[in-house]
Amino acid sequence: MTAIAFAVFFILLVLGAPVWAAMLVSGGVIAVLDIGLPTQMVVSQLYIATDSWLLLAVPYFLFAGNLMTDLGLAGRLFRFIENLLGHLRGGLPATGVVTCAIFGALSGSSTATVVAVGSMLLPYMIRAGYKQHDALGIIAVSGTLGQMIPPSIYMILFASLVQMDVSKLFLAGIIPGLVVTVLLVATAVALNIFGQHELRPRASAAEIRRSFMEALPALIMPFVVLGGIYAGIFTPTEAAAVAVVYVLAASAIFERKAFTLRRIFKSAEGAVVTSTIIFIILGGATVFANALTFADVPQAFTRFMTSLPVNTHITMGLILLIFVLLGTVLDPVPILYITIPIVFPVVIALGYSPTHFAILTIACMMVAQVTPPVGMSLFALSGVFNVPIGAVMRGALPYLATLVLALLLLWAVPGISTVFE
Protein backbone atom coordinates (compact mmCIF):
# COMPACT_ATOMS: atom_id res chain seq x y z
CA MET A 1 0.00 0.00 0.00
CA THR A 2 2.92 2.34 0.71
CA ALA A 3 4.29 1.65 -2.77
CA ILE A 4 0.87 2.44 -4.24
CA ALA A 5 0.75 5.68 -2.26
CA PHE A 6 4.14 6.77 -3.63
CA ALA A 7 2.97 5.89 -7.14
CA VAL A 8 -0.16 8.03 -6.63
CA PHE A 9 2.02 10.87 -5.35
CA PHE A 10 4.28 10.96 -8.42
CA ILE A 11 1.38 10.42 -10.85
CA LEU A 12 -0.43 13.41 -9.38
CA LEU A 13 2.74 15.52 -9.66
CA VAL A 14 3.17 14.55 -13.31
CA LEU A 15 -0.48 15.45 -13.96
CA GLY A 16 0.16 18.91 -12.53
CA ALA A 17 -1.61 18.61 -9.17
CA PRO A 18 -0.42 20.95 -6.40
CA VAL A 19 2.29 19.39 -4.26
CA TRP A 20 0.22 19.70 -1.08
CA ALA A 21 -2.73 17.90 -2.73
CA ALA A 22 -0.51 15.09 -4.00
CA MET A 23 0.91 14.56 -0.51
CA LEU A 24 -2.50 14.80 1.15
CA VAL A 25 -4.07 12.21 -1.16
CA SER A 26 -1.09 9.86 -0.94
CA GLY A 27 -0.92 10.11 2.84
CA GLY A 28 -4.67 9.60 3.03
CA VAL A 29 -4.38 6.39 0.99
CA ILE A 30 -1.96 4.93 3.53
CA ALA A 31 -3.74 6.29 6.62
CA VAL A 32 -7.27 5.22 5.68
CA LEU A 33 -6.86 2.16 3.46
CA ASP A 34 -3.76 0.59 4.99
CA ILE A 35 -3.62 1.67 8.63
CA GLY A 36 -7.37 2.09 9.06
CA LEU A 37 -7.31 5.53 10.65
CA PRO A 38 -10.60 7.49 10.61
CA THR A 39 -10.78 10.29 8.04
CA GLN A 40 -11.38 12.79 10.85
CA MET A 41 -7.88 12.06 12.16
CA VAL A 42 -6.41 12.66 8.71
CA VAL A 43 -8.19 16.00 8.38
CA SER A 44 -7.13 17.06 11.87
CA GLN A 45 -3.48 16.71 10.81
CA LEU A 46 -3.94 19.69 8.51
CA TYR A 47 -4.59 21.85 11.56
CA ILE A 48 -2.07 20.18 13.85
CA ALA A 49 0.68 20.76 11.25
CA THR A 50 0.55 24.53 11.72
CA ASP A 51 -0.62 24.72 15.34
CA SER A 52 2.85 25.57 16.58
CA TRP A 53 4.19 28.55 18.50
CA LEU A 54 7.53 28.24 16.68
CA LEU A 55 5.94 28.30 13.21
CA LEU A 56 4.27 31.60 14.07
CA ALA A 57 7.69 33.16 13.43
CA VAL A 58 7.37 32.41 9.70
CA PRO A 59 4.74 35.04 8.76
CA TYR A 60 6.38 37.62 11.04
CA PHE A 61 9.81 37.25 9.41
CA LEU A 62 8.21 37.31 5.95
CA PHE A 63 6.30 40.47 6.89
CA ALA A 64 9.48 42.13 8.19
CA GLY A 65 11.34 41.29 4.98
CA ASN A 66 8.56 42.70 2.80
CA LEU A 67 8.46 45.87 4.89
CA MET A 68 12.22 46.30 4.44
CA THR A 69 11.68 46.33 0.68
CA ASP A 70 8.44 48.28 0.38
CA LEU A 71 9.29 50.98 2.94
CA GLY A 72 12.79 51.68 1.63
CA LEU A 73 15.27 50.39 4.22
CA ALA A 74 16.55 47.75 1.78
CA GLY A 75 17.49 50.49 -0.69
CA ARG A 76 19.65 52.18 1.95
CA LEU A 77 21.46 48.90 2.55
CA PHE A 78 22.10 48.38 -1.17
CA ARG A 79 23.50 51.90 -1.63
CA PHE A 80 25.98 51.43 1.21
CA ILE A 81 27.29 48.10 -0.13
CA GLU A 82 27.50 49.53 -3.65
CA ASN A 83 29.54 52.50 -2.41
CA LEU A 84 31.96 50.06 -0.80
CA LEU A 85 32.37 47.60 -3.69
CA GLY A 86 30.80 49.07 -6.83
CA HIS A 87 34.01 50.65 -8.19
CA LEU A 88 35.93 47.34 -8.21
CA ARG A 89 36.12 44.91 -11.14
CA GLY A 90 33.43 42.38 -10.40
CA GLY A 91 32.24 44.81 -7.76
CA LEU A 92 28.59 44.91 -8.79
CA PRO A 93 28.15 41.10 -8.71
CA ALA A 94 29.96 41.07 -5.37
CA THR A 95 27.61 43.83 -4.20
CA GLY A 96 24.69 41.57 -5.11
CA VAL A 97 26.08 38.66 -3.07
CA VAL A 98 26.83 40.74 0.02
CA THR A 99 23.49 42.57 -0.16
CA CYS A 100 21.63 39.25 -0.47
CA ALA A 101 23.55 37.89 2.53
CA ILE A 102 22.70 40.88 4.72
CA PHE A 103 19.13 41.17 3.49
CA GLY A 104 18.64 37.44 4.05
CA ALA A 105 19.69 37.99 7.66
CA LEU A 106 16.97 40.62 7.90
CA SER A 107 14.09 38.78 6.24
CA GLY A 108 14.72 35.01 6.47
CA SER A 109 13.04 34.65 3.08
CA SER A 110 14.80 33.73 -0.17
CA THR A 111 11.89 34.87 -2.33
CA ALA A 112 11.77 38.29 -0.66
CA THR A 113 15.54 38.58 -1.02
CA VAL A 114 15.77 37.78 -4.74
CA VAL A 115 12.89 40.12 -5.58
CA ALA A 116 14.15 42.99 -3.43
CA VAL A 117 17.83 42.80 -4.39
CA GLY A 118 17.01 41.96 -8.02
CA SER A 119 14.86 45.06 -8.37
CA MET A 120 17.75 47.23 -7.19
CA LEU A 121 20.76 45.44 -8.70
CA LEU A 122 19.55 44.31 -12.13
CA PRO A 123 19.22 47.82 -13.69
CA TYR A 124 22.67 48.78 -12.39
CA MET A 125 24.35 45.67 -13.83
CA ILE A 126 22.67 45.96 -17.23
CA ARG A 127 23.66 49.65 -17.53
CA ALA A 128 27.24 48.68 -16.62
CA GLY A 129 27.38 46.17 -19.50
CA TYR A 130 26.65 42.89 -17.72
CA LYS A 131 24.48 40.39 -19.55
CA GLN A 132 20.99 40.02 -18.15
CA HIS A 133 21.24 36.27 -17.58
CA ASP A 134 24.51 36.70 -15.64
CA ALA A 135 22.92 39.29 -13.38
CA LEU A 136 19.83 37.16 -12.79
CA GLY A 137 21.96 34.09 -12.07
CA ILE A 138 23.99 35.70 -9.31
CA ILE A 139 20.84 37.11 -7.71
CA ALA A 140 19.01 33.76 -7.87
CA VAL A 141 21.80 31.84 -6.15
CA SER A 142 22.81 34.54 -3.66
CA GLY A 143 19.19 34.89 -2.59
CA THR A 144 19.40 31.45 -1.03
CA LEU A 145 21.90 32.75 1.56
CA GLY A 146 18.92 33.88 3.63
CA GLN A 147 18.25 30.24 4.47
CA MET A 148 21.71 29.67 5.96
CA ILE A 149 22.27 33.04 7.63
CA PRO A 150 19.86 33.42 10.56
CA PRO A 151 16.99 33.97 10.95
CA SER A 152 16.06 31.24 8.46
CA ILE A 153 12.59 29.99 7.57
CA TYR A 154 13.97 26.53 6.78
CA MET A 155 15.79 26.34 10.11
CA ILE A 156 12.48 27.11 11.83
CA LEU A 157 10.78 24.31 9.87
CA PHE A 158 13.63 21.86 10.57
CA ALA A 159 13.58 22.65 14.29
CA SER A 160 9.81 22.16 14.43
CA LEU A 161 10.17 18.74 12.79
CA VAL A 162 12.82 17.30 15.11
CA GLN A 163 12.05 19.32 18.26
CA MET A 164 15.40 21.12 18.30
CA ASP A 165 16.09 24.54 19.78
CA VAL A 166 15.94 26.83 16.75
CA SER A 167 18.15 29.42 18.46
CA LYS A 168 20.98 26.84 18.41
CA LEU A 169 20.46 26.36 14.68
CA PHE A 170 20.49 30.11 14.14
CA LEU A 171 23.83 30.32 15.93
CA ALA A 172 25.22 27.33 14.02
CA GLY A 173 24.33 28.91 10.67
CA ILE A 174 26.42 32.06 11.10
CA ILE A 175 29.87 30.68 10.18
CA PRO A 176 28.60 28.41 7.33
CA GLY A 177 26.63 31.36 5.98
CA LEU A 178 29.75 33.52 5.93
CA VAL A 179 31.75 30.72 4.27
CA VAL A 180 29.19 30.32 1.48
CA THR A 181 29.03 34.10 1.05
CA VAL A 182 32.82 34.33 0.62
CA LEU A 183 32.80 31.49 -1.93
CA LEU A 184 30.03 33.17 -3.95
CA VAL A 185 31.84 36.54 -3.85
CA ALA A 186 35.03 34.84 -5.07
CA THR A 187 33.09 33.17 -7.89
CA ALA A 188 31.40 36.44 -8.88
CA VAL A 189 34.71 38.31 -8.99
CA ALA A 190 36.54 35.49 -10.83
CA LEU A 191 33.86 35.32 -13.54
CA ASN A 192 33.68 39.07 -14.09
CA ILE A 193 37.08 40.53 -13.24
CA PHE A 194 38.28 40.47 -16.87
CA GLY A 195 34.99 41.58 -18.41
CA GLN A 196 34.70 44.89 -20.25
CA HIS A 197 32.21 46.39 -17.84
CA GLU A 198 31.77 50.03 -17.03
CA LEU A 199 33.15 50.82 -13.59
CA ARG A 200 31.44 53.40 -11.42
CA PRO A 201 33.66 56.08 -9.88
CA ARG A 202 35.10 55.26 -6.47
CA ALA A 203 32.89 56.66 -3.73
CA SER A 204 34.51 59.25 -1.50
CA ALA A 205 35.03 58.63 2.19
CA ALA A 206 32.27 61.15 2.88
CA GLU A 207 29.84 59.27 0.60
CA ILE A 208 30.67 55.95 2.24
CA ARG A 209 30.25 57.46 5.68
CA ARG A 210 26.93 59.06 4.74
CA SER A 211 25.56 55.87 3.15
CA PHE A 212 26.69 53.88 6.18
CA MET A 213 24.78 56.17 8.51
CA GLU A 214 21.73 55.89 6.25
CA ALA A 215 21.99 52.07 6.22
CA LEU A 216 22.66 51.82 9.95
CA PRO A 217 18.99 51.25 10.93
CA ALA A 218 18.92 48.20 8.63
CA LEU A 219 22.35 46.95 9.70
CA ILE A 220 21.41 47.10 13.39
CA MET A 221 18.32 44.94 13.00
CA PRO A 222 20.06 41.49 12.99
CA PHE A 223 21.85 42.43 16.21
CA VAL A 224 18.56 43.48 17.80
CA VAL A 225 16.78 40.28 16.75
CA LEU A 226 19.53 37.72 17.34
CA GLY A 227 20.99 39.58 20.31
CA GLY A 228 17.59 39.55 21.99
CA ILE A 229 17.29 35.79 21.43
CA TYR A 230 20.71 34.89 22.84
CA ALA A 231 20.41 37.35 25.72
CA GLY A 232 17.24 35.55 26.75
CA ILE A 233 15.09 38.65 26.30
CA PHE A 234 12.64 36.99 23.92
CA THR A 235 12.01 33.71 22.10
CA PRO A 236 12.64 33.28 18.35
CA THR A 237 8.93 33.74 17.67
CA GLU A 238 8.82 36.89 19.76
CA ALA A 239 12.00 38.02 17.97
CA ALA A 240 10.17 37.76 14.65
CA ALA A 241 7.42 40.01 15.97
CA VAL A 242 10.04 42.42 17.32
CA ALA A 243 11.57 42.51 13.83
CA VAL A 244 8.26 43.72 12.40
CA VAL A 245 7.91 46.41 15.07
CA TYR A 246 11.53 47.48 14.57
CA VAL A 247 11.16 47.86 10.79
CA LEU A 248 7.92 49.81 11.19
CA ALA A 249 9.48 52.15 13.74
CA ALA A 250 12.71 52.67 11.77
CA SER A 251 10.78 53.28 8.55
CA ALA A 252 8.45 55.76 10.24
CA ILE A 253 11.49 57.74 11.42
CA PHE A 254 13.84 57.49 8.42
CA GLU A 255 11.53 56.82 5.43
CA ARG A 256 8.57 59.08 6.09
CA LYS A 257 7.61 59.52 2.43
CA ALA A 258 7.52 55.76 1.80
CA PHE A 259 5.79 55.03 5.12
CA THR A 260 2.20 54.74 3.89
CA LEU A 261 -0.67 52.43 4.76
CA ARG A 262 -0.85 51.28 1.15
CA ARG A 263 2.75 50.00 1.25
CA ILE A 264 2.26 48.41 4.67
CA PHE A 265 -0.85 46.58 3.46
CA LYS A 266 1.04 45.47 0.35
CA SER A 267 3.77 43.99 2.56
CA ALA A 268 1.19 42.29 4.76
CA GLU A 269 -0.61 40.84 1.75
CA GLY A 270 2.63 39.35 0.39
CA ALA A 271 3.45 37.83 3.77
CA VAL A 272 -0.04 36.33 4.10
CA VAL A 273 0.07 34.80 0.61
CA THR A 274 3.52 33.27 1.09
CA SER A 275 2.72 32.03 4.60
CA THR A 276 -0.51 30.45 3.35
CA ILE A 277 1.36 28.60 0.61
CA ILE A 278 3.93 27.32 3.12
CA PHE A 279 1.32 26.25 5.67
CA ILE A 280 -0.87 24.47 3.10
CA ILE A 281 2.19 22.51 1.99
CA LEU A 282 3.00 21.77 5.63
CA GLY A 283 -0.49 20.36 6.12
CA GLY A 284 -0.27 17.97 3.17
CA ALA A 285 3.31 17.02 4.00
CA THR A 286 2.41 16.29 7.63
CA VAL A 287 -0.39 13.95 6.60
CA PHE A 288 2.01 12.16 4.26
CA ALA A 289 4.88 11.99 6.78
CA ASN A 290 2.66 10.80 9.65
CA ALA A 291 1.13 8.11 7.48
CA LEU A 292 4.61 6.87 6.58
CA THR A 293 5.54 6.82 10.26
CA PHE A 294 2.44 4.77 11.13
CA ALA A 295 3.36 2.41 8.30
CA ASP A 296 6.81 1.86 9.87
CA VAL A 297 8.64 3.37 6.87
CA PRO A 298 11.14 5.50 8.88
CA GLN A 299 11.98 2.58 11.14
CA ALA A 300 12.46 0.22 8.20
CA PHE A 301 14.58 2.80 6.38
CA THR A 302 16.74 3.27 9.47
CA ARG A 303 17.30 -0.46 9.80
CA PHE A 304 18.18 -0.74 6.12
CA MET A 305 20.59 2.22 5.98
CA THR A 306 22.42 1.30 9.20
CA SER A 307 22.82 -2.30 8.03
CA LEU A 308 24.57 -1.35 4.77
CA PRO A 309 28.13 -2.71 4.70
CA VAL A 310 29.59 0.71 3.85
CA ASN A 311 31.30 3.58 5.63
CA THR A 312 28.96 5.88 7.54
CA HIS A 313 30.14 8.82 5.41
CA ILE A 314 29.00 6.99 2.28
CA THR A 315 25.60 6.51 3.88
CA MET A 316 25.43 10.24 4.65
CA GLY A 317 26.50 10.98 1.08
CA LEU A 318 23.57 8.92 -0.19
CA ILE A 319 21.18 10.89 2.03
CA LEU A 320 22.53 14.20 0.75
CA LEU A 321 22.29 12.93 -2.82
CA ILE A 322 18.62 12.07 -2.21
CA PHE A 323 18.04 15.65 -1.04
CA VAL A 324 19.70 17.10 -4.13
CA LEU A 325 17.85 14.79 -6.52
CA LEU A 326 14.50 15.56 -4.88
CA GLY A 327 15.33 19.24 -5.32
CA THR A 328 15.02 18.81 -9.08
CA VAL A 329 11.31 17.93 -8.79
CA LEU A 330 10.13 19.36 -5.45
CA ASP A 331 10.32 22.61 -3.50
CA PRO A 332 12.39 22.57 -0.27
CA VAL A 333 9.40 22.71 2.11
CA PRO A 334 7.84 19.37 1.03
CA ILE A 335 11.31 17.83 0.81
CA LEU A 336 11.91 18.70 4.46
CA TYR A 337 8.57 17.41 5.67
CA ILE A 338 8.69 14.19 3.65
CA THR A 339 12.28 13.19 4.29
CA ILE A 340 13.38 14.49 7.70
CA PRO A 341 11.08 12.19 9.74
CA ILE A 342 12.52 9.27 7.76
CA VAL A 343 16.23 10.11 7.57
CA PHE A 344 16.78 11.91 10.91
CA PRO A 345 16.76 8.65 12.94
CA VAL A 346 19.29 7.23 10.48
CA VAL A 347 21.59 10.21 10.95
CA ILE A 348 21.42 9.94 14.74
CA ALA A 349 22.08 6.19 14.53
CA LEU A 350 25.17 6.92 12.40
CA GLY A 351 26.52 9.15 15.15
CA TYR A 352 26.29 12.46 13.28
CA SER A 353 25.70 15.69 15.17
CA PRO A 354 22.08 16.86 14.74
CA THR A 355 23.38 20.41 14.31
CA HIS A 356 25.82 19.39 11.58
CA PHE A 357 23.08 17.47 9.80
CA ALA A 358 20.74 20.47 10.05
CA ILE A 359 23.31 22.71 8.37
CA LEU A 360 23.95 20.12 5.64
CA THR A 361 20.21 19.83 5.09
CA ILE A 362 19.85 23.62 4.76
CA ALA A 363 22.76 23.66 2.29
CA CYS A 364 20.95 21.00 0.23
CA MET A 365 17.76 23.08 0.32
CA MET A 366 19.75 26.07 -0.96
CA VAL A 367 20.84 23.93 -3.89
CA ALA A 368 17.24 22.79 -4.41
CA GLN A 369 16.05 26.39 -4.72
CA VAL A 370 18.15 26.94 -7.84
CA THR A 371 18.14 23.43 -9.32
CA PRO A 372 16.33 23.13 -12.67
CA PRO A 373 13.59 22.55 -13.56
CA VAL A 374 11.59 23.62 -10.46
CA GLY A 375 13.97 25.89 -8.52
CA MET A 376 11.85 28.37 -6.57
CA SER A 377 14.32 31.27 -6.88
CA LEU A 378 14.58 30.70 -10.63
CA PHE A 379 10.83 30.98 -11.07
CA ALA A 380 10.57 33.99 -8.76
CA LEU A 381 13.05 35.98 -10.86
CA SER A 382 11.59 34.74 -14.13
CA GLY A 383 8.09 35.82 -13.10
CA VAL A 384 8.97 39.19 -11.56
CA PHE A 385 11.27 40.36 -14.36
CA ASN A 386 9.39 38.64 -17.21
CA VAL A 387 12.38 36.75 -18.62
CA PRO A 388 12.52 33.13 -19.83
CA ILE A 389 13.28 30.64 -17.09
CA GLY A 390 16.07 29.23 -19.28
CA ALA A 391 17.94 32.53 -19.18
CA VAL A 392 17.91 32.56 -15.38
CA MET A 393 19.06 28.92 -15.29
CA ARG A 394 21.97 29.63 -17.65
CA GLY A 395 23.21 32.50 -15.53
CA ALA A 396 22.82 30.54 -12.30
CA LEU A 397 24.81 27.44 -13.29
CA PRO A 398 28.34 28.66 -12.34
CA TYR A 399 27.10 29.85 -8.95
CA LEU A 400 25.10 26.65 -8.47
CA ALA A 401 28.39 24.76 -8.88
CA THR A 402 29.83 26.93 -6.09
CA LEU A 403 26.87 26.05 -3.85
CA VAL A 404 27.54 22.35 -4.43
CA LEU A 405 31.22 22.92 -3.61
CA ALA A 406 30.17 24.71 -0.41
CA LEU A 407 27.94 21.76 0.51
CA LEU A 408 30.87 19.35 0.10
CA LEU A 409 33.09 21.62 2.20
CA LEU A 410 30.53 21.81 5.02
CA TRP A 411 30.21 18.02 4.91
CA ALA A 412 33.96 17.44 4.97
CA VAL A 413 34.64 19.94 7.78
CA PRO A 414 31.99 19.46 10.51
CA GLY A 415 33.69 22.03 12.75
CA ILE A 416 32.39 24.84 10.53
CA SER A 417 28.85 23.94 11.61
CA THR A 418 29.51 22.85 15.18
CA VAL A 419 31.96 25.55 16.31
CA PHE A 420 29.43 26.96 18.80
CA GLU A 421 28.31 23.62 20.26
TrEMBL record:
<feature type="transmembrane region" description="Helical">
    <location>
        <begin position="271"/>
        <end position="292"/>
    </location>
</feature>
<dbReference type="InterPro" id="IPR010656">
    <property type="entry name" value="DctM"/>
</dbReference>
<feature type="transmembrane region" description="Helical">
    <location>
        <begin position="312"/>
        <end position="330"/>
    </location>
</feature>
<feature type="transmembrane region" description="Helical">
    <location>
        <begin position="137"/>
        <end position="157"/>
    </location>
</feature>
<feature type="domain" description="TRAP C4-dicarboxylate transport system permease DctM subunit">
    <location>
        <begin position="6"/>
        <end position="416"/>
    </location>
</feature>
<keyword id="KW-0812">Transmembrane</keyword>
<feature type="transmembrane region" description="Helical">
    <location>
        <begin position="239"/>
        <end position="259"/>
    </location>
</feature>
<feature type="transmembrane region" description="Helical">
    <location>
        <begin position="84"/>
        <end position="106"/>
    </location>
</feature>
<keyword id="KW-1133">Transmembrane helix</keyword>
<dbReference type="GO" id="GO:0005886">
    <property type="term" value="C:plasma membrane"/>
</dbReference>
<comment type="subunit">
    <text>The complex comprises the extracytoplasmic solute receptor protein and the two transmembrane proteins.</text>
</comment>
<feature type="transmembrane region" description="Helical">
    <location>
        <begin position="399"/>
        <end position="420"/>
    </location>
</feature>
<keyword id="KW-0813">Transport</keyword>
<keyword id="KW-1003">Cell membrane</keyword>
<feature type="transmembrane region" description="Helical">
    <location>
        <begin position="169"/>
        <end position="194"/>
    </location>
</feature>
<comment type="similarity">
    <text>Belongs to the TRAP transporter large permease family.</text>
</comment>
<comment type="function">
    <text>Part of the tripartite ATP-independent periplasmic (TRAP) transport system.</text>
</comment>
<feature type="transmembrane region" description="Helical">
    <location>
        <begin position="374"/>
        <end position="392"/>
    </location>
</feature>
<dbReference type="InterPro" id="IPR004681">
    <property type="entry name" value="TRAP_DctM"/>
</dbReference>
<keyword id="KW-0997">Cell inner membrane</keyword>
<feature type="transmembrane region" description="Helical">
    <location>
        <begin position="45"/>
        <end position="63"/>
    </location>
</feature>
<dbReference type="GO" id="GO:0022857">
    <property type="term" value="F:transmembrane transporter activity"/>
</dbReference>
<feature type="transmembrane region" description="Helical">
    <location>
        <begin position="112"/>
        <end position="130"/>
    </location>
</feature>
<protein>
    <recommendedName>
        <fullName>TRAP transporter large permease protein</fullName>
    </recommendedName>
</protein>
<dbReference type="Pfam" id="PF06808">
    <property type="entry name" value="DctM"/>
</dbReference>
<keyword id="KW-0472">Membrane</keyword>
<feature type="transmembrane region" description="Helical">
    <location>
        <begin position="215"/>
        <end position="233"/>
    </location>
</feature>
